[in-house]
Design a protein that fits this description.
Blueprint: E1 6-12, H1 18-27, E2 36-43, H2 49-59, E3 64-69, H3 76-85, E4 90-95, E5 99-100, H4 104-115, E6 119-122, E7 124-127, E8 160-162, H5 163-168, H6 182-192, E9 196-199, E10 205-208, H7 216-219, H8 222-239, H9 244-261, H10 271-288, H11 291-296, H12 299-310, H13 313-326, E11 331-334, E12 337-340, H14 363-367, E13 371-379, E14 385-393, H15 398-401, E15 407-410, E16 413-414, E17 416-423, E18 426-434, H16 435-440, E19 447-457, E20 460-465, E21 477-481, E22 484-492, E23 498-505, H17 507-517
Parallel strand pairs: 1-2, 1-4, 2-3, 6-9, 7-10
Antiparallel strand pairs: 4-8, 5-10, 6-8, 11-12, 13-14, 14-18, 15-16, 15-19, 17-18, 19-20, 19-23, 21-22, 22-23
Length: 523
């Protein structure tokens, strides 16, 4: 039997009905079923996923291999089991609720063979407003460097790996990590690869956000995530010597995983959990947070992590409440320096360095910090619906410090500024986003648009995410674009920032919605 070009690994646990689309996208790949093998491991599913795998194995016995096992609590064990039996020249990992573009594997294998690459990244996009970091997919690259690119921000395992590399270094997933176990695997593969390539001219991977959010990553808790980020950072430290290269990797983990532990939802945790999380963040900061990493962090995670490192739970709560409940902090001007007036600034008890609060080098970005105070649906003069966002800052001098218009954007969509005014308590900016423009800027799988402010000041352009201390109460609405329907939902991210979620609606949901609106009997 001919050696397959690529083994596709699918770790499966209760992913119906998404699993069917995932498997169909694999057996219908343009590369041909004779050049791939699908190794699917059912990790004790109880929703019929195991039966669906068996059905595909009966339909495509030469292509689909199925292994059933008791539930292991995470994707690591089933992924390792699949690697043990994979026979392809390359191996590719796919989430059981995701799917591939029709030409994905053919393009990836061709690139790996042509460039002699050990790892190839194909552009990934989000579905159902799932957010996927896009910086690494800016352009096609024959070769990128792990330490001098955006690759550390894209360490998911959804890549093509040369199996000889995997087996030579016996790369496997740490099975004691219920969340994030793909990151050590991917990091070491990229660290040891002789060449890493990027393909950005095709939508290879469609990452689906489950509408029921049952994915373990979505529902993992703070203590679990703390344990996983500790494992990841310890792994990085064991793989890479201290210095710029290690910092280039760890900055992502402080800016993302560690920062997520002290987001606004930290306020709702039990006191004992807060204490445990703070102790864990302090330990990680003491061991791995260098001045180089700290200086590269944005002001919010820099101060929250720093306060956890030096202060008490109450000190950290005060800093988080400033953003989550009280609004944009005051600006302290001292000579030619600007400082963010968060709790703890020049508190002799904490002895936090002024440099942690210094925003002088990013004064335009600091000036652009606004807080959403109202989000409403409106009807434009021509009858088109629009989403209006009203945002404020305590700075009364906002207009006088800027040179040019002050506006709001949602993703790549620029809102129409309707008002820029000031009163005794600060300044207000009000902008309107037409539905047609929002939908035009969204792909068929939907999108998650971050609302940001933008202005020109101090010789540069400043921008900042618009925070929303409370989730907007405005309702979600359904709109049509061509033959497709989408639901637009103004909401907040885990960071307390205003976002506009645009998600496609299936025909079944559209019909169900229409039936609910009809009188009884459909008349």
């Amino acid at each position: 039997m001919r050696e397959p070009d690529v083994s596709v690994v699918v770790a499966v646990y209760n992913t119906m009905p998404y699993l069917t689309k995932c498997l169909n996208s694999l057996v219908r790949q343009s590369i041909g079923r004779d050049r791939i093998e699908v190794v699917a491991v059912d990790d004790g599913s109880t929703d019929g996923s195991g039966r669906e795998l068996d059905r595909f194995a009966r339909l495509y016995p030469e292509t689909v291999k199925v292994i059933h096992q008791a539930n292991s609590g995470g994707p690591a064990a089933p992924s390792n089991r699949a690697l043990d039996v994979a026979t392809g020249r390359y191996v590719f990992f796919i989430g059981a609720d995701d799917y591939l573009g029709p030409e994905a594997l053919e393009r990836l294998v061709h690139a790996a063979d042509e460039y002699d690459s050990d790892v190839v990244l194909g552009k990934a996009i989000g579905v159902n407003s799932r957010n996927i970091h896009q910086a690494v997919f800016a352009r096609n690259e024959v070769e990128i460097d792990l330490f001098d690119s955006a690759l550390p921000w894209s360490l998911a395992n959804t890549k093509l790996f040369r199996r000889e590399l995997v087996e030579r270094h016996h790369l496997r997933y740490p099975e004691d990590m219920p969340v994030g176990s793909d990151q050590p695997f991917t990091l070491e593969a990229c660290f040891r690869a002789k060449r890493i390539s990027v393909l950005a001219d095709y939508d290879f991977y469609h990452a689906v956000r489950r509408l029921n959010a049952h994915n373990i990553t979505y529902r993992s808790r703070h203590v679990e995530r703390l344990g996983c980020v500790k494992s990841i950072m310890d792994f990085v430290a064991g793989l890479i010597e201290p210095g710029e290269r290690r910092d280039a990797i760890l900055v992502r983990h402080f800016a993302w995983e560690v920062a997520r532990l002290v987001e606004d939802d930290f306020l709702q945790l039990d006191r004992a959990v807060q204490e445990q999380v703070l102790a864990g963040v302090r330990d990680l900061a003491d061991r791995y947070l260098t001045d180089r990493i700290r200086a590269s962090l944005e002001i919010e995670p820099r101060l929250r992590i720093g306060t956890a490192q030096r202060g008490t739970v109450d000190d950290l709560l005060a800093v988080i409440r400033q953003d989550a409940e009280e609004g944009v902090p005051p600006t302290v001007v001292d000579g030619d320096r600007w400082y963010a007036g968060y709790p703890g600034f020049r508190d002799p008890r904490l002895e936090l360095p002024d440099s942690w609060f210094d925003v002088s080098d990013n004064a335009a970005d600091w000036l652009a910090r606004l807080e959403a105070v109202a989000v409403t649906w409106e009807t434009c003069d021509d009858g088109e619906r629009a989403l209006a966002v009203t945002a404020r800052t305590p700075r009364r001098d906002l207009a006088s410090l800027t040179s040019g218009p002050i506006g709001l954007t949602a993703g790549d969509v620029t809102g129409t500024t309707l008002e820029t005014s000031r009163d005794g308590a600060g300044s207000t900016v009000r902008a309107q986003f037409r539905v047609g423009l929002l939908l035009a800027g969204s792909g068929t799988g939907g999108s998650l648009l971050s609302v940001r402010s933008q202005l020109t000041a101090f010789g540069g352009v400043g921008t900042a995410a618009v925070r929303a201390p409370t989730r907007p109460t405005v309702s979600r609405l359904m709109f049509r674009r061509g033959m497709r329907f989408f639901v637009i939902t103004p909401t907040t991210s885990h960071r307390g920032q205003l976002v506009i979620a645009i998600a496609p609606v299936t025909p079944r949901r559209v019909l169900a919605r229409l039936r609910r609106r009809l009188p009884q009997g459909g008349k």
